[in-house]
Amino acid sequence: MIHVLAAAERNIKNAVGRNNMNTVIAKVDPNNIDRNIINEAACILKNGGLVAFPTETVYGLGANGLNKDACKKIYEAKGRPSDNPLILHISDISQLSKLISEKNDISEKIIKKFWPGPLTLIFKKSEIVPNEVSGGLNTVAIRYPENPVAKALIDACGFPIAAPSANSSGKPSPTLAKHVYDDLLGKIDMIIDGGSTVFGLESTIIDVSEGKAVILRPGAITKEMLEEIIDNVGIDPSILKLSSDVKPKAPGMKYKHYSPNAEVILVKGDKNNVINYINKCIKEKSEENKSVGVMTVDENIILYNSQNVISLGKSEDFEEIGKNLFKALREFDYRNTDFVYSECFEEVGEGLAIMNRLKKSAGGKIINV
Ligand code: TXA
Ligand code: MG
Question: What is the mean pLDDT of residues 170-190?
Fold first, then answer.
């Protein structure tokens, strides 16, 4: 099925992971796509296998979205709870109508402005969508990504690709092929390495299934951007208040997420108070022989008394901060960090998505100083 004979010239290698499956790893330049690699990946997907591929948000773990047995393998490889539905990825608007049973003016407006892109829509589903995709709901999540490698792969398959983020369940979503390799080597058939993702946070999810727009997961397409084209953009209450008594509408949003091995602690308040508090914690934890990391911004990096400080970018540059967040959380693991203290960000624009992911990585713990 897979021709690895020309491995060198096509930049393909095979690696065996802990679970003993051969995982083919193939580099693809998004600006000069090697069709042989895409065809091999499509062949794996047609035969019910799993392929991780880049999108402009995060890497996805793909399976044939109309094949329930293939979709089941996604849950096994990720260790994902079975009630957490998958997003179907399409590569042309014409593929939408057979997957859904209802459209409306709101979805039309959003699609026109934001597809292809970092945005997922929830529609009432059609009968061909398997329960393994919809998690037993009567709705389905659809995304039309812009990344050329993702688009080429979906085109080559001729069916929608079901793909959650390509991480082990609970870990930060992968923004580099290396992250996928670290989590899923030996558990999946292929990883397409298309370099670093552009946005670094998963797509904004908007429920349009009930005739209005409600944000279920914040992302790079912000509430403010949506309000430029539609009135009354709602927001799932669980996003604003992380608490066990507010049940999120997107099933996946209820799970602890984005967690490195380190314990993440968010510190909020006046800048000087935050820095003083974190420096005090660095001192105390170091005396207990614990390794402490700090997540901050360029302007504050020199103010911390630790060797293990990562800046996410300039304090005003939420795009850059969003792009670097998951990579930084994983970097602390590579550095064997026990505790990560992070500054907080204003919850406007993309700041809402950044704080949503940060709060989840900290299990909701914020220290106000
Ligand atoms: O950027 C992204 O969206 C990436 C790339 C690969 O496309 N995918 C991604 O998938 O983040 P995943 O599975 O990690 O997150 C999908 C989220 C989950 O929280 C899931 O519960 C929610 O979408 N979801 C899927 N179908 C849904 C539905 N019918 N109703 C409500 N939420 C749904
Ligand atoms: Mg995910």
Answer: 96
> Would the pLDDT of 97 be above 70?
yes
Is the CB of 52 inside a 6 Å radius of any atom of ligand 1?
no
For ligand 1, say whether the CB of 177 is within 6 Å of any of its atoms. no
Residue 9: band (very low, low, confident or very high) from pLDDT cuts 50, 70, 90: low
User: 27 and 114: one domain?
Assistant: yes
Mutate to test the pocket of ligand 1, among 61, 132, 165 (most ligand atoms within 8 A of CB): 165
- What is the pTM for the complete model shown? 0.95
Q: Domain end: 240, 275, 293, which one?
A: 240
CATH of the domain at 212: 3.90.870.10
Kindly state whether residue 281 falls inside one of the protein's structural domains: yes
Nearest to 132 by CA among 80, 208, 167: 80
Give the model confidence (pLDDT) of 126-147 as tens digits.
Answer: 999 999 999 999 999 999 999 9
Q: Which two tokens stand for residue 180?
A: 């996928």
Query: Do both 38 and 154 map to the same domain?
Result: yes
Backbone angles phi, psi at 161, to 5 degrees: -100, 120
User: Given this model, what pLDDT does residue 103 score?
Assistant: 86
Residue 77 CB–ligand 1 contact under 6 Å: no
- Mean pLDDT, the chain, rounded, equals 93
| Residue-level pLDDT at 3 | 44
Number of folded domains in the chain?
Answer: 2
CATH number for the domain harbouring residue 346: 3.40.50.11030
Query: Which range of residues forms the domain containing residue 313?
Result: 263-368
* Spatial separation of the C-alpha atoms in residues 199 and 132, rounded to whole Å: 28
- Determine, yes or no, domain membership for 245: no
CB under 8 A, 24+ apart: contacts of 70-74: 70/45, 70/162, 71/130, 71/132, 71/133, 71/162, 72/132, 73/48, 73/49, 74/50, 74/162, 74/163, 74/164
